[in-house]
Amino acid sequence: MMRNVKIYPAEGTWVVRANGAVIGESNAALELIQRDFPFVIYFPREDIAAAVLEPSDRALICDDRGAGEFYHLSSPEGLLLNAAYSLTAPSEAAAQVQGYLAFDAGKVTVERV
């Protein structure tokens, strides 16, 4: 449903840290708002260190955003399971974030700097 997803440019510079280590930084991130959930920052894939991403067997399926895949993240403290995800078959409303990466805020830190 298109009305349930809204996407805006995320103003400023955004970073993502896994156990304190910066794994990505972007001036081209997007903010996705879905219904009454907290907003999620999506990073262009090229702004995230590819070496920290390990494919997961877990699939992402969301009625509003579409389908995608999860990734584990390597960090100085060990592997963070299913801590990142990407939409590989987004809904029409979420098409703008296809190929971008988002992160589980309970497992990593995403912040504007």
Describe the structure.
- It is a single chain.
- This protein has 113 residues and is an all-beta fold.
- It has one domain (2-112): Beta Complex (Metal Binding Protein, Guanine Nucleotide Exchange Factor, Chain A).
- Helices cover 0% and strands 56% of the residues.
- Strand 2 and strand 3 (21-26) form a beta hairpin.
- The protein is globular, with a radius of gyration of 13 Å.
- The model has no long low-confidence stretch (mean pLDDT 94).
- Residues 15-105 form the DUF427 domain.
- It comes from Roseinatronobacter alkalisoli.
Q: What's the gist of this structure?
A:
This protein has 113 residues and is an all-beta fold.
How many E-type strands? 10
Tell me the helix content: under 10%
Series of H and E elements = EEEEEEEEEE
Give the end-to-end Cα distance, rounded to a whole number of Å: 32 Å
Q: Note poorly predicted spans.
A: none
What characteristic shape results from the CA principal axes? globular
CATH class: Mainly Beta
Strand content: over 45%
In CATH, the architecture is Beta Complex
Widest β-sheet, arrangement of strands: 6-7-8-9
CATH topology: Metal Binding Protein, Guanine Nucleotide Exchange Factor, Chain A
- Summarize model confidence as the mean pLDDT: 94
- Characterize the biggest β-sheet: 4 strands, antiparallel
The total number of structural domains is 1
CATH superfamily: Domain of unknown function (DUF427)
Give the helix tally: 0
Helix- and strand-based class?
A: mainly beta
The rounded Rg comes to 13 Å
